[in-house]
Amino acid sequence: MKLKTSTLIWTFIWCLFMGVTAISIGFGALFPSMNLISKPFVCPGGNMTVDEHVYKPYPGKTITTLTWYCVDSQSGEKTEIGLFPMSISAGLIYGFLLFIVVFIGMWFSARRSAGYGASGLAALQKQEHESIRDAQYSSHKNFGETPDRTKTAESASARMKELKDLHTANMISESEYEEKRAEILKEL
Fold first, then answer.
1. pTM of the predicted model as reported, rounded to 2 decimal places
2. Looking at 79, 113, 147, which one is the last position of a domain?
């Protein structure tokens, strides 16, 4: 199975957006040191520092603000860094890393799906057909003993076909498919 270019482009855009909003701004507020990754872009000639200010405007309410500064290594001059330049540069880095992780997951998923290509699918269909045939044979073999077995085999065959159609349409996972298939065969 081949990954579509449009899917990759939209996934890349989504990852960049999540890198800026969720990772850099969201997690960056919880763990401020995460934003130090943006130092080469927003503070190339100095060190990034953060000042934390805690305010208690009234009892029971605490407000914490973080102010980032770029401190020039030669003069010691502090320049305030805005939230957005820092978040955007850190977020784009995190977004790119997120895309790499998501891309690897998509690639392995596509590769695993491709493993059930034409030959793998044919083998699964043959195994399924043999299981249904064996189930029908065993029900016809004991025809005189229990007349309900023929109906059970026909019902199982119809249920197996429906299950196979759901699996082929990717509406159920491989594990769900195998589990339900085993249940149907057990009922025979």
1. 0.54
2. 113
